[in-house]
Design goal:
- There is one protein chain.
- The protein has 11 helices and 7 strands.
- With 268 residues, it is an alpha/beta fold.
- The protein has a single domain, classed as Vaccinia Virus protein VP39 (Rossmann fold, 3-Layer(aba) Sandwich).
- β4, α9 and β5 form a beta-alpha-beta unit.
- α4 packs antiparallel against α6.
Amino acid sequence: MTHLPRETATQKIGRFARKPAAEKRAAILSTVMAAVPRDVRQWLLGIRSLPAQFRTARSKSRASYIRSGLGDSAELLYGLVRSMKPEVCVEIGSALGKSASYIGMALKENGRGMLYAIDPHEPTNWNDVDAIDSLKEFSRNVTAAGLGEHVSVLRSYSDAAAKDWNRPIDLIFIDGDHSYEGVKRDWDLFLPHMKPTGVAIFHDTLWELPPYAGEVRSDMGVPRFVDELREGGYQVLTINRDYGVSLVQPVIGGFALRSSSRVAQAAQ
């Protein structure tokens, strides 16, 4: 067995000197941190993350003031995206950008992924009162949070956006046309592109139940459609806040968690 000669201290220094500056800093930091007690090391790492935490808190504070019926349920979108680490998110109905801001902030913190925000940004039957021509304010809100790399604006109706769609979708937020025909169309257009473990989130699903029933429009169709999904075997989880937020997995009966069930499911 051939033994290579040991590297001398001079050779080690020379090799270190030839490294790029970034590698030198990383090596020095690693050496120093290895000598620090574990509890102190964790404290120091926490200190290093403070600037990023501050930026996130500041962006969240700004986004929380964006006018939207979604309210604090925007935090649900943020948490799901932080947990799922999705590559492709879609929202139908962007309005002033509250949902887009929360999804975009989570994608930015993940360091990956893109939200495709679909909205014509023109008068429709379902605009919020203060979001008729909303593109300018939407863009301002998304830009203020520094989300340009993670939010792509698709200024169109959902049927036009879906026409040439070819990206597998991890998460979709449906909050556009609230008529029965409109919300069904959005689901039918994008369901074929949903990953089995993906999540669809519908807003405004509890308008037919107290305490919201007295405010319901006669042409509101989201509760009826999402309830039909539930009756048809889709797994639906509904949160009774902010007019109802329902999560649906795009597989009838839910995504099978055992291999034998998966085989049977695939054969159906």
